[in-house]
Design a protein that fits this description.
With 729 residues, the chain is α+β, with helices and mostly antiparallel strands. It has 6 domains: 169 residues, no CATH class; 69 residues, Single alpha-helices involved in coiled-coils or other helix-helix interfaces, CATH 1.20.5; 126 residues, no CATH class; 158 residues, no CATH class; 87 residues, no CATH class; 44 residues, no CATH class. 51% of the residues lie in helices and 7% in strands. It is built from 26 helices and 15 strands. Strands 6-5-9-8 form a 4-stranded mixed sheet. It has a 3-stranded antiparallel sheet with strand order 7-4-11. Helix 13 runs parallel beside helix 17, helix 21 runs antiparallel to helix 22 and helix 24 packs antiparallel against helix 26. The relative contact order is 0.07.
Length: 729
């Protein structure tokens, strides 16, 4: 039984444009009156369709019949008005006309042809590698296809055109709706394997302890548990990575990588998957494990390829000596400016401070008057055994110079931490600087052979060990300022604009909430920065009012930008709003009626297709973003799903609308023909004459058209080149 519903004027007004008719107000004398349909015209047209309505409708498919009844009911509602406007009657007329023009009856032979096209798919039984039940399509889409295929075979011999048409339309929709599972072929896997193995083989090409940057990624190394490594890593940190689902992104927008665990290396995992694929009967598979291994190799190639080595080549004794001086400067500055409790927290990476620590006790170190230039300065320290760390009763005075390691006077409790690494790296560097060439084996990774002797390779290793240990300890203090306060303010405004663009619709509810929170945090940061009279870019400010600096401009910007990016990425899947499409239909139709655009066949078709597709849109991917409310009122701020996996009506509307935009662009963009000064589409002697005439009269000629010899001016030389080209043919 045909479904019946009354359509609101929003739908009808769009449908009216399928004939490129524009209905103006009563005062618009420029309106093409032949496109206006009166109440009498509508009554006559409805009456002319009586036979179609009462009997002929049953020859068509269910969907066509439903659309036709919708149009009839809207027309009757308009005719029931005592004095309907020309807009109402024209809209109803054009809507009914468009639906009638789209009625279709499919024959049994057409249905049989479609069945034949689908038989190979049906016979596949949705299996590629039968022994492992390797599917081709999603189970849901294939089940619908099987049902539609069986129905088509039942009705192909029917004498009822409606049954045949319905079967045809259902089978075609099911065929088009088949969703293929992601697959990988043997050839694709083999190609990725070759590239991956080649990169793996280069892991030893890089010098020991050489770091680089894999920008935009955070590498997670694995042991018993996952733990994080910074995005400045050695090549060895990344050669054995596997990658998660691609959706693991931290608050700064870095993608997160996860290395293999549970005994398998990524290389073993990938190799085993490829061996399984080689044994399959089909040349492709959708097996989830094989796909995961393929993607792991593919994305591992991406991250390995993105790694750029730093510019640290070979180091010498002088470079190590300079780094020692830099180290002392950094550490002395830290001791000078950090309270005892805070220094202990920094060194030991803890929020808890032992009872024996106090400002007075550690004040022997932190309270000294020290300079950040490596100059010799005195500092009182404790002397007796373990007491030297905290007992202020017994002290000695030492000179703080280039060769004095202040770290020995700080209680480092974890030799495995960054400060422990720094302490070891410092001792090694000082020993080498003093001519004591031993201890290098502890950090040797095969680069050094024989007994330590202070070779260039050893100096390089010592230098890098200390350099990277310093970076790990002082990375926060030395963070590069990438963004300024003004950048944060600009991004806050962009965040507001982005939220407006979404129309605050339910589709983006979660992301909008996260963006709002991040925007408010950024706004609080800006307020705190404005309140800081000594603020300058790069400085961290106290946002929470507890006296502790919370974040600088760069950290604030990156935190907000991560949420902006997340919303942008999702918004990109919904490229157009329904209101935008509706308004464009009206704009183009008006331009055609006014003669500003040519009513070419392609433009008229695209306009009609877009209006029809929008008006009948009901099947959507996201129930939070419908085109119409239940009473068929256009939801202008809702958006059309346009991602690559869009199907059915959404895909049709996207295609029609983009075809419309392309046709408008084709007519509105002016193509400049170099040398065609008179604009008649041909370059000949008349154009040369026009240039000479302009030169004599002092009239300017557009360089984009007249500067034929590309010397930056339009003059007689251009005219001469045109004539020469004409003669040359």
């Amino acid at each position: 039984m045909l479904r019946r519903r009354i359509l609101a004027s929003a739908m009808a007004s769009v449908m009216a444009l399928t004939s490129v008719a524009v209905v103006a107000s009563a005062d618009d004398t420029a309106t093409d009156v032949k496109n206006v349909k009166t109440k009498a015209d509508l009554e006559a047209y409805v009456k002319s369709l009586d036979t179609l309505r009462t009997t002929g409708i049953y020859d068509y498919g269910t969907q066509s019949g439903t659309n036709l009844l919708d149009a009839f009911e809207y027309a009757e509602n308009v005719l029931a008005e005592a004095e309907p406007t020309d807009f109402q009657t024209t809209a109803a007329f054009r809507m009914l006309e468009s639906v009638v023009n789209n009625l279709v009856i499919h024959s049994a032979s057409e249905l049989q042809t479609l069945i034949n096209e689908c038989t190979k798919i049906y016979n596949s039984d949705n299996i590629m590698n039968e022994g492992v039940q390797d599917a081709i399509y999603t189970e849901d889409s294939f089940d619908k296809f099987v049902v539609a295929y069986a129905k088509a075979q039942t009705y192909v011999t029917s004498s009822e055109s409606r049954d045949i048409t319905d079967a045809y339309e259902e089978l075609l929709a099911a065929k088009n709706g088949l969703t293929k599972l992601a697959t990988v072929s043997k050839a694709e896997f083999r190609s990725i394997m070759r590239t991956y193995e080649n990169l793996i083989s280069k892991s030893k090409d890089y010098d020991t302890w050489r770091r680089g940057n894999s920008s935009g990624w955070l590498v997670l190394a694995s042991g018993a548990d996952y733990w994080r490594v910074t995005n400045t890593v050695t090549f060895g940190n990344i050669v054995n990575i596997a990658i998660g689902d691609g959706n693991l992104v931290d608050q700064w927008g870095n993608k997160t990588l996860i290395v293999a665990h549970e005994g398998d290396t990524v290389r073993e995992y990938i190799t085993e998957a490829y061996e399984r694929l080689s044994g399959f009967s089909s040349s492709a598979t959708s097996d989830s494990d094989i796909l995961a291994a393929y993607n792991a190799a593919k994305e591992a190639i991406q991250i390995m390829g993105s790694w750029k080595a730093d510019n640290t080549d070979r180091a010498s004794k002088s470079q190590v000596s300079a780094l020692l001086k830099e180290y002392h400067g950094k550490l002395v500055a830290l001791l000078k400016t950090t309270a005892a409790e805070d220094l202990y927290k920094v060194v030991n990476k803890t929020d808890k401070v032992p009872n024996w620590i106090s400002k007075n006790q550690w004040g022997n170190i932190t309270g000294a008057s020290l300079k950040n230039d490596g100059a010799k300065t005195t500092i009182p320290v404790t002397t007796e055994g373990n007491k030297k760390y905290y007992d202020p009763a017994s002290t000695e005075t030492i000179n703080v110079g280039r060769n004095i390691d202040l770290l020995q006077y700080i209680k480092v409790t974890s030799a495995d931490g960054a400060w422990g690494d720094l302490k070891e790296a410092m001792k090694l560097a000082e020993d080498y600087d003093a001519g004591k060439f031993d201890g290098i084996q502890k950090i040797n990774e095969g680069t050094i052979t024989g007994e330590p002797s202070g070779s260039p390779a050893e100096w390089t290793l010592v230098y890098r060990y200390l350099k990277y240990a310093l970076e790990d300890v002082f990375a926060v203090a030395d963070a590069v300022t990438t963004y300024k306060k003004s950048d944060v303010v600009a991004l806050i405004n962009e965040a507001y604009d982005l939220a407006d663009k979404t129309g605050d619709i339910a589709t983006f509810k979660t992301l909008l909430g996260e963006l709002a929170d991040a925007r408010q945090d950024a706004t609080k940061w800006v307020a705190a920065a404005n309140a800081d009279k000594l603020y300058k870019d790069g400085k961290s400010v106290d946002v929470n009012g507890d006296g502790t600096p919370d974040a600088n401009a760069t950290a604030t910007y990156e935190a907000l930008n991560a949420k902006v990016k997340a919303l942008k990425d999702e918004l990109a899947k919904y490229a157009y709003s329904y209101g935008e499409i509706h308004d464009q239909i009206n704009t183009v139709a008006a331009a055609v009626d006014a003669g500003e655009l040519e009513a070419s066949d392609a433009l008229v078709k695209a306009l009609a297709d877009t209006a029809y597709a929008l008006s009948t849109l009901s099947d959507i991917s996201n129930e939070d973003s419908p085109a119409f409310s239940s009473d068929r009122v256009l939801q202008a701020t809702n958006r059309l799903y346009t991602a690559d996996d869009a199907k059915g009506q959404e895909k049709a509307l996207k295609a029609a609308y983009e075809a419309l935009l392309a046709e408008v662009k084709k007519q509105s963009e002016v193509t400049v023909v170099l040398g065609d000064v008179d604009g008649n589409g041909t370059v000949n002697a008349l154009d040369a004459a026009a240039i000479l005439k302009a030169v004599v009269s002092g009239t300017e000629v557009d360089k984009a058209v007249g500067d034929v010899n590309a010397d930056g001016a339009v003059n007689a030389l251009d005219a001469a080149k045109i004539l020469a080209d004409v003669v040359a043919g």
